[in-house]
Batch of 2 targets.
Target 1
Amino acid sequence: MSKPSKTRRTMRAMDDRLGTGHLLRNQLNKIFPDHWSFMLGEIALYTFAILIVTGTFLTFFFHASEHDIRYHGSYLPLQHVRMSEAYESVIHITFDIRAGLLIRQIHHWAALLFVAAIVLHMCRIFFTGAFRKPREMNWIIGVTLAILAIVEGFAGYSLPDDLLSGTGVRIAYSILESIPWVGPYLATFIFNGQYPGAEAFIPRLYILHVLLIPGLMLVLITAHLMAVWHQKHTQFPKEGYQERNVVGSHIWPNYTMKSQGLFFMIFGVLALLAAYAQINPIWLYGPYDPAVVSAGSQPDWYMFWLEGSLRLMPHLESRFLGHTIPWNVFVPAVVLPVLLFVMIYAHPFVERLLTRDHEPHELLQRPRYHPFRTGVGIAVLVFYVVLSVAGANDVIPFTFGLDMMDFTWAMRVLLIIAPPLSFLATHKICTRLQAAAERAELAPPPDAVLTMVADSHYAVVPHQERVAAPSAPPGGSDSPEG
Amino acid sequence: MTERGEETPRVPAELPLPAYPLASETMATSYDAVLHRPTDPEAHTHPAPAVTQEKPPRSNRDPAAEKRVSFAVTVAFVASVAGSLLFTFGYILLPIHDAHLGNLLNLVLGSGLGLTMLGLGVGMILIGKHLIPAVKSEQHRPTHHSSPEDEFAAEEQLIGGVTEMGLQQRSFVRRTMLAALGLLPVPFVVGLRDLGPRPVARLRANSWTKDIRLVDIDTRVPVRLGDIDIGGMVTVMPEDDPDSSFPVNAESVVLLIHLGPGVNQPLPGREHWAADDHVAYSKICTHAGCPVGLFERQTGYLLCPCHQSTFDVPRGCTVIFGPAARALPQLPIYVDREGYFRAQRPFDMPLGPSFWARDNKDE
């Protein structure tokens, strides 16, 4: 009678051209399992989107140049100070562009949250065994994304060319140089000579930061999500949850509302952080000057572990046949991270070799039911945390009145003994929890009572049955069937 | 639509849930919509069995709770609108430079944007969690592998394509094609050669020369005897450095330290490298290239703030702790007749961190 609604007409017009009806009919019914831990990957995805939006705004004003100028702008404390054009443009964004400071601080907070969400998401995948067949490929993509996120973060906070980040770039140059044989070539090729001085690094880093790495990440995130969508989510084993089904809420409207709401919540929290919590105040650090460094120089949190490994490494260097290998830089800053990430990449395949489990798995494992894996994961995390804490071997001893050398030695010892100890402890806790769970399964329900069901026969009867008993015909309990 | 025997609307009997009373007619319509949701031929999505169902939240069952949630959602969306307005008017009205207000603009814009986003977020999540019927659904998860026929057909097509090209027999075609493809990346790698110069010998890269004066790096004034108190230090660079434009040749930066009488214990062969209790050492850490800058007068230790390498200044700046493997290179200095500090000669070793060809003086 009446004309179909506008929505229906639009959908029909789309379907006439693209045949979207078939696709939408199936996909709008997609089911997502409900578990809070599945939100971590979403947080990473949404912070990435926020980073793209805020980062694009910043590119309108950022000037990627190491060219040397003197500052004559509205920020008085830096008048006549020598700085690079890059640094000047960030000062300009901060003080002369309305909402510039806000967007810059949202961008920085989002970057910190982005890497944090990725790390937690990885932990969720690892400890519940979600990386097992058929999801090994997505583990590889995910680990690659984690590495890219860290590199992207480092590139991003190095761009303003302030004192803190310039020192970090100087260290990065030394790390490149420390690689045997090819290191000096890599360093001078990437930096177009020595750093600082060649004025080539910031422009190169910029195109890496705004085009190459985010472009690659976008491709990998797309692949990551397509695989998740196609394979469907894993779910925790419970009654009714099986290998061949997915139980949860519809993508439309339940998940659309919850997930888009989450996106806006994250954006809102980041905006409030940017309004009320200062981050990376480069105008206080001053421009990069290779002759100056401030005490208490710490990078962003996700670089703490590398900072710590550089600080804990004993002073080893070898010279032979006219060549020098600076182990004190090469091992902590190149060998260690490469080894660690190779281990992480290889884990699904190593575990498959050890367990000989070649079956696909759609149901997750609770960490306690896989004590070995959980122990290894905790040991690696403890190793990572000790390194990260060691990255503050100036600030922590200073704050608590300790001796820096004692503290460093303590961290060196801890780095060796804490991971194996935490493995053993975790293993023990897992097996105890398993035993406790088994006991709980065998034990009667908490509201059960012991009742005489027949002459000298006693049974544990759940509460409900006891309550229901009065409605049974009188005398019925005297004649138990069978 | 809903069959209702009582006055209160209830969960439709066909849903695998107990027949809870529902908060309102609207909620009953929502439950009805779930019940009548079309399924899909691929995954057969349907309401999940009763064992997986959880008790719906109070907002689904209790009229007062439902009203509260609806009200909260409305308030959240109104707050979002207010946030957008706050941002817009703050942007237009507030001054960008205002010494008295400090960063008021940032606070207002951030609060506005935060409110915009949080309002929308809270509203949408409340809808998703409390106003939508809490009915769990289930769908079939197909196995990931294809049918054996599909798999075999795909393999046949891929391998058959190679057969169609006759590559097994035409070995020259095959090998030359592989060679061409294998060499394809080479021009792209070679083309990167001009990214930067070959590494140069660091010995030549530092700009200290014989008899050059030491100038304060900030003021560019030559440093004289008496300028530095005992226990004090000044960061210096070579005077008239052709590369003196900031920040070129950063590795030539030197620390000139006044140790006081009798403190310095020169290394063998360096007895005459100090001048009137002043010593000069490269400021660039031999570990990772940070400027070492923290000098403790009492101990005579020089500390790198980046990784805490600690150098013993009175004993030739040798490493006593931390990751640095080598002492800081020493610059031999003297005081001329007018009292200015001058370099006796350039450094005799490369400055800064170690690298592969450090000892190769020709490269």
Target 2
Amino acid sequence: MKDRTLIVLAAASVVMAASIPLTPQWLVFLITLALAKGLVVLGLVLLMRTGLVSFGQGLYYCLGAYAAALVEQSFHVNDAALMLAAAVVAAAAVAAVLGFLLAAYRGIFFAMLSMALSMILFGLLVKSAALGSTDGFNIATHSLAGAKIEGSAGRVLLGVTIVSFAAAAAGLHRYLNSHLGRLSAAIRDNELRVEYLGASVRNVVHLNYVIAAALGGLGGGLTALAVGHIDPDMAYWTTSGEFVFVAVLSGTGNVLAPFAGSALYEAIRTLANQYAPNVWQMTLGAAMLAIIMFAPDGLWSLFRRRARAS
Amino acid sequence: MSDLLAVVVDGIIYSSWLFIMAAGLTLIYGVMKILNIAHGSLYALGAYLSATLVGLWVAGGHAPYGSYAMLALSALLVGVVMGPLLERGLLRLMYGRDEVVLLLVTYAVFLILEDAIKLVWGVDSLYVAQPYDLPGNFTIGDLSYPVYNLVLIGTAVVAGLALAWALNRTHHGKMLLAVIHDSEVSRALGINVGRVYLVTFTIGTMLAAVGGAVTAPTLAVSAGMGVEVIVLSFAVVVIGGLGSLGGAALGALIVGLVRSAAVHYWPTVELFSVYSVMAMVLIARPKGLFTPPEARRI
Amino acid sequence: MKRIVQWAAFSLLAACCGLAAAQQPLKIGIVTFLSGPAAGPFGVPARNSAEVVVEGLNAGRLPAPYATKGFGGAPLEITFVDEAGPTTKQVADFRNLAQRVDLVIGYVSSGNCLAVAPVAEELKKLTVFFDCGTPRIFEDATYKYVFRTHATATMDSVGAALYVMDRDPKVKSIAGVNQNYAWGQDSWNDFEAAMKVLKPGVEVKTSQMPKLFAGQFGAEISTLLSSNAEFIHSSFWGGDLEAFVLQAAPRDLFKKSTVILTTGETAMFKLADKIPDGTIMGARGTHGVLAPQTELNKWFRAAYEDRYQLSPVYPSYHMVQAILGTKAAYEKAQAANGGKPPSQDQIIAAFENLTYESPSGNVQMSLGKGHQAVQGTAYGTSKLVQGKLTITDVKYYPAEKVNPPDGMKSEDWIKSGFKAK
């Protein structure tokens, strides 16, 4: 049976990658950002499918960014591949440790504790004058896995981002349809029964948390490379809140949704800022309300309007 | 020794401010299971309106002590107008939806209100110091404090006691407590849960506005003042246990005292104090300090 | 008949085109805070200043040497972009803006300046920073397309330290209350370092670092009161500054210690009689009431006050300084280009190491390989005269005394004892 999601994902990635040379600069940047943030949202979608909402994904987003940047600063490594690898490893490592603590929490407490942890990172970074405090610092990428990419760094990075997102989405899609993925959905429905059935809820939650963190770190690393600048704001609760919003906006139905949601959010924000600079927050809020009211299961539900035998 | 006294006094003043903010938030969450992010803008709205009303009152040459009445009036207005408007006009349409969705709705409302405030009052800051300056100062040890801080503490205590009495000793209060415990069963028993929601949200809004109104004379009311307050109130509410008024009081006290101690003895960690306390409390007691017992669904 | 009409039409068209060629409007993107807590104290005064100055320029109303209309005859069109929001948004907005305008003037937040500078280089778009304070921009890197037309925050801290020494050479103790983020931390660190060099052995009683936008300073004020420091340094701005003054003054903090408000000038009209006498006030340079009484300044103040019924404060001066600097560079390049509109590279070449006049006095682009401006600064003491807040006892400090030499980092310069190169 052909998996429609994977086909669409592959097709979309190929089309996007092919049109990279034709895309205008500003759009290259926007799409890179949308995809990078989409990666973080992918992680959130996984957690939401497990019944957990994290208000602290900013922690890993920021950790990934800083890890990538510190690799450049301290070891003078400008290679995008190494920087991104550092981002993922750092995020996953921290999540593996924090997961022992967080895996025991549910609901609003999970959300609040994850938020508290991300704000503690924020505080640590603000205190650190060596890391530039709230001003952060700049980073530059000069090569990708050995090959020099100066001059067209933006487009190469977009290519890397497309590939990363496609791979992550495909991977997540397979994971969600696998044993552990179905177990996650079961945990959301009724944890106690899952325990009675003999599976370890704690282990699954911990694993999902680490995966989500790794995706968050990758997204953070890509953002850092694309923007060329990092600052502690990435760990602030409003950043995490944005990710949650995009996750709810896209809906948790499918792994393709986060990209659409993220792109739409960026588009609305850019347009609001350009055409209504005095009331862009209000415009964003109103758009959010409209979407929540008319597309209750997220944007994805608009694509699945076909009648399903429930 | 006087240093310790200063820490305690500063802590209590700050805690009172926190409590007024947290009380409304915890009440709304307890009853409606909504973590109201717009609480911050309602606080700001209370502050802006009271600044305007006090300004008009003083400019009109009325008795200066009447400005306190203006503070109360502005809180009342905000509560009575915005409460039903938001609850009936918007939140009612979303009941039954996921907790997170409701939270995002309140976040959207927060964004809209921030710009609405900006459109009405502009980006310049307002200040009305008359209520703050009027009563003068008092001294503790060798430090002088404005008497107005006692007004702040007084408001917090009165609000707390009034709420506690209303919740535990009145008929309506007990119905509210029943809804906090289990809204489905309450509905089955014939309680008009819809009306309880409306009343709760209005009171919560009023409390936020009281917080803003009472704070306005102590600083310059400016754009964005709501944002900082949100996370602080959340932290206090979570520490105390969601839905628990006593918890909000204790949480506010702990955070206030810890922060005050940090400022006096170790200023550089002041930034972390709130979140560290929250993390530590959650680690020790995963659901906050006071939580109503919850039945587990099997 | 038809031929005459054709001829007339053709000539008219040619004239229009010729006119149009000379009158191609120059599009300037201006980025500053239009919303949020930084809008009131910085963004709005800057925006007001831009509007009034561009209007005046387009009508050719400025006094010499800026009497030409627009930039060298080309009328100016400005677009405003809100600087509020995270850095990723700023960079995205900048990339978007850069396609629509010829040059960008903007940025109050140091973090945004740091992030945007490399992007300006990448996009090869002339960008003029008008208000951000961090010295890091031209100390950590070199840029071709980026300029900054005002001195860094180091100048504010060093100037404050010099004024303290002038006020009380026997000063024994200092304290600080600054916002806990890069601006506040750097301001305090520079002030503390400068004081330690100017008066070795001075005691630092306490350094309070409340969260940005905390708004409630009860505990901090209590601690400062108990510390009995002689001078208290603060780089507070906006709502925090106003709240601090409103909360500290009634508790006699300003009587027990001398408070230094390095950006105090932004609140002097707002808070007026709330600021106790004897407070040391700074304006991040010779701006506002500390500016010289030149024709240019008189025009600027009159135009601003006429339009807004408010006096311009230092962010307004920073903005007009940026616009006039760009104009001076443009017209210098145009003259060298035989009167034809200059290319961006020619403007940049003219801008480097330029010295030009502004309502706050002379501006020299002498640091950062000709891209970073230096100015002198001034501090004064507040005094209520007939109900109006004035700044008296003003002391001026020339540029070399308060700015590092080219090639030296500000931090190192202070620690070395202010060595001139």
